[in-house]
Amino acid sequence: MSIIIETKKLTKKFGDFVANSKIDIQVEKQEIKCIVGENGAGKSTLMNMLYGVYKPTSGMILLNGKEIVMNSPTDAIRNGIGMVHQHFKLVPSLTVYENILLGSEITKRGLIDRREEITKVKKLIEQYQFQIDPMEKIQNISVGLCQQVEILKMLYRNVDILILDEPTAVLTPQEVDRLMENLKALKKQGKTIIVITHKLREVMYVSDSVTVIKSGQVIGNVKTKDTNETELAQMMVGRDVVLTVRNESGPKPREEEAYRVEGICTVNDSNHEILHNVSLYVKKGEVLGIAGVEGNGQSELIKVLTGVMTVTKGKVLLGGKDMTNAWPDKLRKFGIGIIPEDRYAQGLCKEMTIPENCIAGYFDTHGVCNKGVLKSGKMKQLCDDYIQKYDIRVSDQYGVISQLSGGNAQKVIIAREFENNPDLIIACQPTRGVDIGSIEFIHRQLLALRNAGKAVLLISSELTEIMSLSDRIVVMYKGGIIGEVDPQAASAEEIGLLMAGAGAKGGN
Amino acid sequence: MGFITGILYDSVYHAIPILLCVLGGIFAYKANVLNIALEGMMLAGAFVSVLVSFKTENVMLGYIAAVVTCLAIGLIFAFFGVSCKGNVIVIGLAVNMSIVAIAGFVLQLMNSANIKLGFTNAADFKIHIPIIKNIPILGGIISGHTIITYITFVSIVLVWILMYRTKFGIYVRVVGENEDSAKSLGLNTNKYRYLAILLGSFFCALAGINLALERMTIFTNSMTAGRGFIAIAAIYCGRGDPLSCTFYALIFGLARALSVNLSLYAGAAAAVFDVIPYVVMSIVLTVVSVIKYRNSRVRGM
């Protein structure tokens, strides 16, 4: 096998900060290479240099043995290097085929030749065996399909090397499987694929070789078949990590019910019912997991339970008190802590400082507010406490929150919600886009809360997370609850079947 | 019968300046630049067209001067708003206020409250289309408008094609909707913003010419009377789609026609009917918004 792309002593500095230091990597033709490392290790910087977004401070990039210099992504594409970003760069109001051809439209006498465009895209989809309708608008398709569009966009431009940045961060388990199959098929057709990720299970499943990066340096190059998840995790974090924190040793849930949802329904903007009679309960000292393929009503259920959406029918009770259609401030006051689905959209205010975010939603506690006037000393003290207790890594502790990595930003939310003594925590996708070290920490925190007799409602599209933490699991399908399973007794396959809507068997 | 035909003819008549502003404004809207300078640009078009025609006694020069002036204002707006990344609301306000001030200043110098052309009158600008003008009712509504009126109706179709069937249109929309995407494709996003704004200036110039020179051969200061803002309302109601925005512009035209025609019969109370366009606008905005969020159960929308 020949080497298609190679870097020699590639270094990138931002001011005094060295993001990448003398990186040497070699990627063979037609292999799937995974680059792993924790958040902030410098993976994205490296890829952005390979894609022409950043210019290296020193060192060089060799393509097929010859040095190349790239000034923009356009140069990279011309050299046959394409990239699919973690945050898609698609235009929602345009169709699939328009997005694929964006920037290289086919025109006839100045007007766009739609028929020719559609035929070409259809051919492309067929060639690579993707399953997607070219006429559908981006705003109407799932995240998984959007990613396919991004990949097709690159394939249309005839790239040989495809770089994917955290491709599975936003995908459902089923979509992840599809992507893996797609990647393997692309490899068979002669493409070379570089995947940046920190999900080790996927690395083991799909890759041929792995490069581990830590603090901007390569600390290991291994063939996938010669390694395992635990070894990779140790290399990444630099210490032993527990990959799955299990809910095993704690006390049994109490019999007392902490939270009850009775037959709630709600409708979307076009008046279609999207939640049908959802009922559930959580006992004190219990974790109830809600599993399901994304888009089956979880988002709406979260919105209703966290007070940003109202119900058309049904009741919500917290320890017997009616909480139906209560606003978020009331929910918090009565002891419901909320870890929202999208931490930047709903959980934090990006432009504000860490101390300000530490008290958001809780102005009446910890004495941070006196007769409507905020006490900045108290706020800073609280912030310091949280940073220490929750091991939040910051460079400027009173600076804006946007300096924090995903995992640390999530820890700020968790500190804020946990430290206000909630009776119930609604945790939505608590570890999405969070590095391995922080995942372990967050899982331990959730279990500690459970063992202290609080109720936890966990909504996640990561099935392994749900299975290892929950005492009971309910599965959502098409806006309703299709079944309940015992995580000790049920297998992932059984839950997977329920998630796909295959009958409510195995429940109790 | 004459009354209804009159109102419909007037609806077209009054809708044209708004419609032109709408056609000009939708590209900026799609490129995510809120161009509140439509009003000022239209006033500049009106002012310059009449002033130059008055001084040179040549209407054609008036047309050209108005377009050139508005494009220059558009360039200034784009330079501050796009290149310097200034706040477009503040810049737009500055444009709107400066134009009124400059026009007022010139009128002051000329020692007159308005500029009136002596060598020509509004009737000279009306085109009576052969055959069509003899069709009952329809002829009375369609025929007898000015050249820019007919250009406007052709422009609706052209703008639609430009927006949805050309690279330019797609790129303008991409720039507005997802700038990252546009940049990752190597598009010069500022270029498309500039072009979108300049296209708006061009149409505003036509709107101004139509309003002052063609329809009345007279300029009085602040004669645009908020039409630019009504156009912005129409653009928002139609969410930048050329056809739906046209529909809203026509509704506002109809409202003004009603107000003008009704005041003719109202005698002393005539002024009351002046509020019709603004009342209609408030109602339309409310209804559009209520329909949009009728079923929403999400709070804070």
How is the secondary structure organized here?
The complex is a heterodimer of chains A (508) and B (301).
Chain A: E1 3-14, E2 17-28, E3 32-36, H1 43-50, E4 58-63, E5 66-68, H2 73-78, E6 81-84, H3 96-100, E7 107-108, E8 111-112, H4 114-127, H5 143-156, E9 161-165, H6 173-188, E10 192-197, H7 200-206, E11 209-214, E12 217-223, H8 229-237, E13 257-267, E14 273-283, E15 287-291, H9 298-305, E16 313-318, E17 321-322, H10 328-333, E18 336-339, H11 343-347, H12 354-359, E19 369-370, E20 373-374, H13 376-389, H14 406-418, E21 424-428, H15 436-451, E22 455-459, H16 463-469, E23 472-477, E24 480-485, H17 492-499
Parallel strand pairs in A: 3-10, 3-11, 6-9, 9-10, 15-22, 15-23, 18-21, 21-22
Antiparallel strand pairs in A: 1-2, 1-4, 4-5, 7-8, 11-12, 13-14, 13-16, 16-17, 19-20, 23-24
Helix pairs in contact in A: 14-15
Chain B: H1 2-30, H2 38-56, H3 59-83, H4 88-109, E1 114-116, H5 138-142, H6 147-165, H7 167-177, H8 179-184, H9 189-216, E2 218-220, H10 227-237, H11 242-266, H12 270-273, H13 276-293
Antiparallel strand pairs in B: 1-2
Helix pairs in contact in B: 1-6, 1-7, 1-9, 1-10, 1-11, 2-3, 2-4, 2-9, 2-10, 3-4, 3-9, 6-7, 7-9, 10-11, 11-13
Description:
With 508 residues, chain A is α/β, with parallel strands linked by helices. Chain A is built from 17 helices and 24 strands. Chain A folds into 2 domains: 3-237, P-loop containing nucleotide triphosphate hydrolases (Rossmann fold, 3-Layer(aba) Sandwich), CATH 3.40.50; 257-347 and 420-499, Rossmann fold (3-Layer(aba) Sandwich). In chain A, the strands form 6 sheets. Chain A has a 6-stranded mixed beta sheet with strand order 6-9-10-3-11-12, with helices on both faces. In chain A, α14 (406-418) packs parallel to α15. The model of chain A is unreliable at 504-508 (pLDDT under 50). Chain B is mostly helical and 301 residues long. Chain B has one domain (15-238). Chain B is built from 13 helices and 2 strands. Chain B has helices at residues 2-30, 38-56, 59-83, 88-109, 138-142, 147-165, 167-177, 179-184, 189-216, 227-237, 242-266, 270-273, 276-293, and strands at 114-116, 218-220. Classes of the chains: A alpha/beta (508), B mainly alpha (301). Chain A binds chain B through residues 72-74, 85, 87, 89-94, 98, 102-103, 105, 107, 110-112, 114, 266-271, 303, 307-312, 327, and chain B through 161, 165-167, 170, 173-174, 177-178, 180-181, 184-187, 293-300.
